[in-house]
Amino acid sequence: MADRPVTKLDKSEVLTGLFAVWDDIAALLDGLPEPEWQAASPLPGWDVKALVAHMIGTESFLAGVPAPQPDIDVSTLEHVRNDIGVMNECWVRYLAAESGADVLKRFRDITDDRRKALTQMPAEEWDAVTMTPVGPESYGRFMRVRVFDCWMHEQDIRVALGRPSADDQLAGPPSELSLDEIAGTMGYVVGKRAKAPEGSRVLFDLTGPLSRSIRISVDGRAQLVEDFGGLDPTVTIRLDGLQFTRLAGGRPMCPRRSQDVDLGGDGDVAGRIVENLNFVI
Length: 281
Known about the structure:
Layout: H1 11-29, H2 48-62, H3 83-95, H4 100-120, H5 123-127, E1 129-132, E2 135-138, H6 139-161, H7 167-170, H8 173-193, E3 201-207, E4 212-219, E5 221-225, E6 235-240, H9 241-248, E7 261-265, H10 267-275
Parallel strand pairs: 3-6
Antiparallel strand pairs: 1-2, 3-4, 4-5, 6-7
Helix pairs in contact: 1-4, 1-6, 1-8, 2-3, 2-4, 2-6, 6-8
């Protein structure tokens, strides 16, 4: 994959989104009654506290803090499927006995440390290639993946607490950057997972506060394009933008928003794409 292009992203834009989603999560959890930290999330085996522990763990890893030793072999747990899952679970178990308020303090402390480190990071480090959850990529792309991950978990927490995002809360840099990250993976979804045939032109028509048009053209390989050169799409998939992010993240749809998914054009291909939208590890 040496010829794979590296994504160069504007540091201030990505960090604005990352810091904003951390602020939103901290505000959402501030003063949360202790029982609500145990509310079941849409992710199997994880409550609200586990979601926050996972984010603490990832930022700690990026800050060079080793994962705590678990009390059991976490790789045997049903919802742990890979090495990243093992690291996540070490932090989840380690912090499970702490109070919600203490876990929130840890979240604030590690994200404050990361803010300082990221703000001071030189441009050459920001653009340097490193291993990321999406393969060898720029550190900046990795941080956009962090925006996506944290924003998705904010929505998970909101579902768990029965406090889904209002329309105005869905507008802003974190959701826009998360959609950018998801859009960048749709070529893989359409081409590799759904095996859309050569010549396919797939339009994701997202509605609601996260409205956006995402176009994937299959021309040798499936890739994100600005337009179809005046041609009509062969497949149209229309749904609420937040619900699109839920499906792309392997989550159940949010119960408070429209769950309609309208398919146009080649129904077989459209159906395969929707069935294979989940791209997360």
